[in-house]
Amino acid sequence: MDVTLQHDDRMMQPWRTAAIVAVAVAAVELLVLVIVGGALLAKPSSGSAAHPAKAKVTASSAAAKTKKSAVTHTVHRAAAPVAHLSRTKVTVLVLNGNGRQGAAASTAARVRGRGYKIGGVANAPRSDFTRSLVMYRRGFEGEGRRLARDLGIGIVGPLDGLRTSQLHGANAVVVVGA
């Protein structure tokens, strides 16, 4: 018994139409996303400023003819916090955040070698930190940033996940990552 299946284009037509409509909608969405993304990434520049901190704004050509001076605006950036305490007066708590035995102790030796006081060496609450970081208590941002620079650590921020009472008097914390 030979059974042959016949291909009926009428059954395929609704699926083809739906697929074509879906592809067209997706293409329009992609086009809109590309345009919006390009507009957001290509922010308009303020003239032809050579240095981003100083932008020179000139008056329109008609006003420039009557006035011979140009208006200059300076953009002020927040000054980086300055460390007020010497390294010998800053106490650092070193926490092992990668789970490897001795990681915090060896980092504490590096910190001590830079002139800081060690307030303690312990394990962090978690052992899955992929990168080392420095956290500082309120009022000690300059000291925390200097400590991070001294150790070559790029992640610096205020205390997060630790209470001041857990610091045992330390001004900054180094969490050793992988």
Structure commentary:
It is built from four helices and seven strands. The protein starts with 8 loop residues before the first helix and ends with a strand. Strands 4-3-7-5-6 form a five-stranded mixed β-sheet, with helices on one face. It has a two-stranded antiparallel sheet with strand order 1-2. The protein has a domain at 87-176: Alpha-Beta Plaits (2-Layer Sandwich), CATH 3.30.70.2390. It is α/β, with parallel strands linked by helices. Helix 4 links the parallel strand 5 and strand 6 (156-158).
What are the key terms here?
single chain, alpha/beta, 5-stranded mixed beta sheet, two-stranded antiparallel ribbon, 7 strands, 34% helix
Global morphology: elongated
Q: Quote the CATH topology of one domain.
A: Alpha-Beta Plaits
How many individual β-strands? 7
Q: Compute the CA-based radius of gyration.
A: 30 Å
Hey, roughly how much beta strand do the residues contain?
15-25%
Query: How widely separated are the two ends?
Result: 70 Å
Biggest sheet: strands, sense, closure?
5 strands, mixed
Strand order across the largest sheet:
4-3-7-5-6
Average pLDDT number? 79
Tell me the structural class. alpha/beta
Provide the CATH architecture of one domain.
2-Layer Sandwich
What top-tier CATH class of one domain fits best?
Alpha Beta
